[in-house]
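Standup notes, protein team

Yesterday: finished cleaning the Flagellimonas pelagia set.
Today: ATP-binding cassette domain-containing protein structure.
Blockers: none.

Input for ATP-binding cassette domain-containing protein:
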Amino acid sequence: METKEKIVAGVAEASGEVVIKIKGLCKSFGDNQVLKGFNMELRKGENLVVMGKSGSGKSVMIKCLVGLMSPDSGYVEVLGKDINNLDQIALDELRSDIGFLFQGSALYDSMTVRENLEFPMRRHRKKFEGITDTLPLVREALENVGLAHTMDLMPSELSGGMKRRVALARAIILKPKLILYDEPTSGLDPITSKEIIELMRSIQKKYGTSALIITHDVDCARVISERMILLVDGTNYAEGTYAELVTSQDPNVNAFFKK
Ligand SMILES: Nc1ncnc2c1ncn2[C@@H]1O[C@H](COP(=O)(O)OP(=O)(O)OP(=O)(O)O)[C@@H](O)[C@H]1O
């Protein structure tokens, strides 16, 4: 018997342009049905947090979102484009409007901070056509995260928190319309996590970017999210604001908020 409670508790109808639309997303690996009809909508300027326990399919969902994995069925639209009907060139162009912040920062160890930031600019040359001097853009991105003085340092000379900030600067150098954050605070101490969350907020304010944030960090979700989706058993188990979900009587929802 279906016992799951769907909570779509009084979420204020977000208005404006839809930046991500996922409908009925299904993905299996052999007998392992990971996503079983997942739905999601992210609106312009919104911060949406998706929480799900380890192995629940968050990374699979992100991979389907950026065309790194094909769904078995379902519709995925990003910035108005149907992902499953794009050729490689169109997909690359779309990705130039998306910033990524991966778990663990993922900086290139053999490159300086500046070279790390220039890397996505080289990859998406078309977006930067006519720009011969990359320095002002690198400086601006680093200033946004308070690290302009680290431009010529190597990643090994940075602390974990600094690396995460540089990774954030690299995510915003493309002036993306959308940022995908995968566990942005993982492995950081509480104070550094707070700094990263504050930077995420200030970037959203400054550039009006929309953000999809995958996190286990309840404090991060509380501070950053306008809306949350709890992914359980391959589908949207619960959806609402932090305040709505944290006071839910559903034990499966409560489990997410226990520290
Ligand atoms: N390429 C693949 N081939 C086979 N199985 C896969 C593949 N990618 C993911 N899976 C399976 O899909 C399930 C969901 O994995 P996924 O990485 O999306 O979880 P997650 O929610 O991101 O977990 P975590 O929070 O630990 O990062 C897991 O059971 C995983 O083994």
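Follow-up from PR in the comments: The longest helix spans residues 190-207.
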